[in-house]
Design a protein that fits this description.
The protein contains 15 helices and 8 strands. It is α/β, with parallel strands linked by helices. The chain binds 5,6-dihydroxy-NADP (NZQ) and zinc ion.
Length: 389
């Protein structure tokens, strides 16, 4: 069975070295007054900030700045950004950074036109009609925020981290050289996030959408090939370029076209970890994903077919016994994660079981994980969290 799908990604996507030379012409299409949004300073350290300021000054753009957007961006930054945009009467937002900065900018873009409490907007069902135009310059390969409409915003007061769809970037500039400076930890975590975006949809009952499954497997193999290269030589252009390309496609929906849509269980469980403990998203996923794999393999024998395919096509293993192959595939996957030096347990991150029940309830709000490939309830989720200790 191949499900109907719609391809509708309106983002103009510039990829490669020096694509920033098109920034002036793209900004100009949307106006003259710009909110320049960025994170904690990495763009200054790599000289990108100065390059952008030079382009803005040479082009006689007017701009104001929102700096200090946090990893796991907070509602407070969204509120501040909306205020700045309204006061300055912004025409366009220019977000420069990783997924956190771009996500925050998306919520600001929609929040600009939102009449009401902005945290309610973040939590609410999407009823957002208008957004300011958003242009981004990506500096970390991970989330795919450069090529999707989603933003994820945190509220540390209520221990909630909520995704919503806001707006697609009008234009994304993806120059892999800007990712040379990404730390090993963020490189490994970001790469795992890319893989997770594919894995979440790949493990499903749909077996007939060959192209989707082949794209997914190819992304997984590519990320496993180039992450170690980027970790051993951070300036390897081919590695950084492949990871960036994978980042954008993995979360775009393309690897799931034609397949039955499933909720993303590892993402649901991870967002709770980030909401309570403010951990790096990709690191949380790397801990959860192999445990979730082992758990659903034991829970439902129908998964053997998929897991043995994963073992063959992604991990490159062979064997006659499908169950044995499935187990070895997960073990090889864990070995790969370990080789990237990511943490393998929650304990390493200082997390114990004290909040597991609350987290499981919230991860499964509205019973949403019932529609997973292998349906999960709160008990299942708590078991998976426990396996991560
Ligand atoms: O803040 P700065 O100084 O820029 O430093 C950042 C930050 O400390 C640093 N960094 C970024 N580019 C760099 C760099 N350091 C050196 N050189 C560079 N070129 O890396 C750290 C992490 O940045 P962040 O933006 O938080 O990482 P990432 O891109 O992984 O984004 C994570 C956020 O995106 C959400 C996650 O939940 C998390 O909140 N997600 C967004 C999604 C989406 N929009 O579709 C989907 C994902 O599943 C995910 O949930
Ligand atoms: Zn993710």
């Amino acid at each position: 069975m191949i499900e109907n799908f719609i391809h509708d990604i309106p983002t103009k996507y510039y990829f490669g070295k020096d694509v920033i030379k098109h920034l002036d012409e793209e900004l100009r299409k949307y106006g003259n007054k710009i909110l320049l949004a960025y994170g904690g300073g990495s763009i200054k350290r790599i000289g990108l900030y100065q390059k952008i300021i030079d382009i803005l000054n040479t082009g006689n753009f007017e701009y104001t700045e929102l700096s200090g957007i946090e990893p796991n961006p907070r509602i407070e930054s969204v509120i501040e950004g909306v205020k700045l945009c309204r006061e300055f009467k912004c025409d366009v937002i220019l977000a420069v950074g990783g997924g956190s900065t771009i996500d925050c900018a998306k919520a600001i873009a929609s929040g600009y036109y939102y009449d009401g409490d902005l945290w309610e907007m973040v939590k609410g069902p999407r009823s957002l009609k208008k957004s300011l135009p958003l242009i981004d310059i990506l500096t970390l390969s991970a989330t795919g925020s450069e090529f999707d409409g989603v933003g994820v915003i945190s509220n540390l007061d209520t221990n909630e981290k909520m995704g919503n769809s806001y707006t697609y970037p009008r234009v994304s500039f993806c120059d892999p050289t800007y990712t040379f400076s990404v730390s090993d930890y963020q490189t490994a975590a970001g790469s795992f996030d890319i893989m997770s975006h594919v894995i979440e949809g790949y493990f499903s009952d749909s077996d007939d959408s060959d192209l989707a499954d082949d794209i997914a497997e190819s992304i997984l193999r590519t990320v496993m090939k180039y992450t170690p290269v980027a970790l051993s030589d951070s300036d390897d252009y081919v590695a950084r370029a492949n990871l960036m390309h994978c980042s954008s496609i993995a979360c775009s929906g393309i690897p799931e076209y034609g397949k039955r849509k499933v909720p993303w269980p590892c993402h649901s469980m991870e967002h709770e970890l980030s909401a309570y403990y403010d951990i790096t998203h990709g690191a949380g996923l790397a801990i959860l994903t192999p445990r979730w794999m082992r758990y659903i393999l034991q829970k439902d024998a129908k998964t053997i077919k998929r897991f043995s395919r994963f073992a063959r096509n992604v991990m490159g293993l062979m064997g006659e016994d499908s169950y044995d192959l499935s187990i070895r595939g997960i073990e090889a996957f864990e070995e790969y994660i370990r080789s990237t030096s990511l943490p393998m347990t929650l304990t390493e991150l200082g997390i114990d079981d004290i909040n597991f029940e609350k987290m499981a309830l919230h991860a499964n709000r509205n019973q949403k994980l019932k529609a997973s490939y292998v349906p999960l309830d709160e008990k299942d989720i708590i078991e998976i969290y426990k396996m991560c200790i």
